[in-house]
Amino acid sequence: MPVQECTLDGKPGFRWGQSGRCYTYTPGDEDSRNEAKRRAHVQGYAIEQSGGEGRSMNDVSYRKAFPATIKKIAPQESDLEAMRQYAPGDVTAEDYFCGTMEVCNDQYDRAHERFTPEYLQRFAETLPGKSLLPGHNYEELPLGRFYDAKVVRTERGHSLIGKFFVDAQDSKTVRGISLGVYRDSSIGYTAGGRACDLCGEEYHPMGKAAGANCEHWPGMEFDGKLCTLTYIHPEKAEARETSLVWLGCQPGAQILQNGVPLDLIECKAAWTKSAGTPKEKTMADDVEEKGAASPPAITPEMKALMEDGQKYRDWLKAEIARKYGAVEMESTGNAMIAALAQSNADALKAVDADAQKLYDQKFPPAAHSQSRTDVQPPTDPTQGQQQRRFKATWGRA
Known about the structure:
3 domains
């Protein structure tokens, strides 16, 4: 399916096939045109890798991290029988280091998404035989392999528990798990899509540009109600792998296909400050922990500085929203602002700088006027007087 020309809001662009997103460019700007065409090709690559244009644009690879709670177990005979099916030769219990982990659950996470129990059951059916990887690095050999998985009922809902094994002679991995250094995991999977819990429509991060009817954004409030998402079409779900990762909190599932983001926008936001994280420790909390009688009083000068800082952060958020909106990426801008709700000015400035680059690509700034320092003194005295009067007037403007 080749890249085709398209038009969106009166602007020319390129898209993959008949239903891909139309990436517009500025007429007469060759760099802008090439970038739009490149993004259409990458979009086509993602569609082809996910099974063709007939599948949902949501039906691509995802990654989602959870605290793993890895535990060592003593393999039973049934465990050995299950593990031996992956070994071409004779092996004994001493050859294996076995463990269990909570791979994922059905609770809303910090990305404001949740799996259904049907999704977890589908993962349980497809996880055995899949690899345990280091940090989703598909170029590295597996650290181990899953040989069993099941869905269990817990106090908070349902959880997917996976059993895995690694080589008992792999001292680095075994010691890392035993000491609790390798503690957190992230499941790599395919999904059939997500539905908005507010409107019931299928959600897509590109919104109407991808043909979706849902206009909400997860993590944002609409008429006082928080937008959340639930995964749908469990028959299309598959657990691809599970990795040991550096952080087991849920920073938000990034939509990927073989490592290529669909929207090609690198989010440099401080996701650890996104909505749903534990309440940030305050000065009063810190004083209470240390046993002080009361927190220091906030002076009027300190309060004024705090208010100015909040105004500056609010201004930066407005600039981010304005610039992303100007380049027709309003949904991306909204996601940035939601993720940076409690972030400091440095994080906001970094995202604003990225937004400015996109804005400048679409609306190149005008060339600055030539400096007058290189102008030679006039030979005509009258002309010099006119220039001095003009310079004086300009200087007072």
